[in-house]
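Posted in: Protein Modeling Q&A

I'm a second-year student putting together a small comparison for a lab meeting, and my supervisor asked me to include a predicted structure for Phage holin family protein. I've never done this before, so apologies if this is the wrong subforum. The sequence is pasted below exactly as I got it from our records. If anyone can share the C-alpha cell output, I'd also love a short note on what stands out.
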Amino acid sequence: MDSENTPNKDRSTFTGLLSDLTNELTSLVRQEIELAKAEVSEKISQTTSGATSVAIAGAVLFAGFLVLLAAAVFGLNTVLPPDTTPWLSALIVGVIVVIVGFIMLQSGRKKLKAQNLAPQRTLSSLKSDKQLAQKHEQNAKEALK
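Accepted answer (user: helix_wrangler)
Welcome! Here is the predicted structure, written out as C-alpha cells:
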C-alpha cells in the first residue's frame, strides 16, 4: 500500500510545483509589465522635459546667433575688397555656418539612436527572469525523472 501512495504523492507534489511555478511566473510577468510601464513613463517624462528645455534654449540661442552672424558679415566687409564685400562676406559666413550646422546635426542624430532610448533596466530584468524560468523548468523536469 505504501508503494501505491508514492505515485499519487509524486503527482500531487509535481502538480503543486507546477501550480507554484505558474503562479510565480504570472506574478513575475505582471511585475515586469509594471516595471516596463514605470520605466517608459519615466523616459517619456525625461524626453519631454529635455525637449522643452532644448527648444526654448534653441530659440534664444538662434536669435543671438543671427545677430552674431550679421556682425560677422559686417566685420568681413571691412576686410574684403570694396567691390566684392556685399555678397562675398555673406557667402563666406553662410558656408561656414552650414558646415558647422551639418557637423552638429550628425552629432545629434547619433545621440537619438533607438538603443539609447531603450528601457535598459527592464531588458536586463527580463533576461534574468528568462534564465530563472529556464532553471525552474529544468528543475521541474528533473523532479519528474
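A couple of things worth pointing out for your meeting: The first helix runs from residue 2 to 79. The helical segments are 2-79, 85-111, 114-117, 120-144.
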